[in-house]
Amino acid sequence: MNQRNRLELRKFVAPEFVCGQGALRLAGRYAHNLGMRRVLLVTDAGVRAAGWADAVGESLARAEVSFTIFDSVTPNPRSSEVMAGAEVYRSEDCNGIVAVGGGSPMDCAKGIGVVSVSGRDILAFEGVDRVSELPPPLVCVPTTAGSSADLSPFAIIRDEMGRRKVAIISKALVPDISLLDPEPLTTMPRELTVDTGIDALSHAIEAYVSNASSPITDLHALEAIRLTSTALPAVIRSPDDLNLRFSTLLASLHAGLAFSNASLGAAHAMSHALGGVYDLAHGRCNALLLEDVIEANYEAASTRYDRIGAIIGREQDEWMAPAEVVASFIRSLGVAGTLSSLGVTGDMIPALAERAYVDPCLATNPSDLSREEIEEIYERAL
Ligand SMILES: [Fe+2]
């Protein structure tokens, strides 16, 4: 695994994106250029209360694009929310979608697009390349720096009946444009800044060690790790600093470009299972799993993990194992506890491992983990 074949065929997909202060205010112009005359503006209550949905709405109004707001989206968006949003899209005769928020509204928006052209249940599209009809145009305005749903071909939807997270992966889910503006990040509470920042770091680490990595994704993954390791601790101390917020947004952008093309690994497969069963915060699950996943994977990608450890731990006097470096970085951000402190119980581990084992993210994990080995990682993280 450390001796990769650099000549292996790889492709790289990325949406158009605009980054910088004021990018949010371009939403109307881009919606208009994409032919939208009536938009479903997908957001959530928190983002709406912070004023960012209204700011995007003003931009749409200036471009004479009418819109309806759909804000019935919760963290770990449920399939029922997608279906409800698609019903509003249909009844309001919309012809385009603008998503404003973190990963949840953006994933929900992608699902609404898929349902609106197909008329089918969103859960029917689980898996890779199952979306055959092109969804309506989608503009994304991320208000967190972590999910990269504004760039990725992924939508993660919670099947509430089956208590599992369903991964829908298709090039058709790559948004038409992402407007990366640091201003909306300033209203994120500390915990969300930390959790989403660690999600970005997890994307970069898993993409860098992924079996589907390439010289192009490596470039983005390493830059994301470097940026996160400096900007995330600093932004927690200075949450209103726009330059620092922008650095975390760039970290998320680089991580998104990396994992959109190299995919992820065991931490995400296991985190999706936890989110499905317990409805837990995605970034926090990654934070509590990363150390044990790195330990389990280390032998299969030691050179790459050593490089990650050297970047994050560059100020340490003595060499530390990469798993320890990452764990200590995460603890330095104030993340404490274990999976059991989130309410996870040992009796659920076999069911969690069962779900993680069939998650598409596991396919690119550097080591070939068995169900039993996944159970052992959960046990260590408990
Ligand atoms: Fe993630």
From TrEMBL:
Molecular function (GO) terms for this protein are: alcohol dehydrogenase (NAD+) activity; metal ion binding
Where does the Fe-containing alcohol dehydrogenase-like C-terminal domain start and stop, copy by copy? 193-381
In terms of domain of life, where is this protein from?
A: Archaea
Q: Which organism is it from?
A: Methanoculleus receptaculi
Keyword check for Hydrolase, yes or no.
no
The keyword Oxidoreductase appears for this protein? yes
The record's gene field reads: ercA
Q: What protein name is recorded for this chain?
A: Alcohol dehydrogenase-like regulatory protein ErcA
PROSITE patterns given in the database record: ADH_IRON_1, ADH_IRON_2
Extract the InterPro entries matched here.
Answer: ADH_Fe/GldA, ADH_Fe_C, ADH_Fe_CS, Alcohol_dehydrogenase_Fe
Q: Which UniProt keywords apply?
A: NAD, Oxidoreductase
Domain Alcohol dehydrogenase iron-type/glycerol dehydrogenase GldA, first and last residues per copy: 16-182
Family from the record: Belongs to the iron-containing alcohol dehydrogenase family.
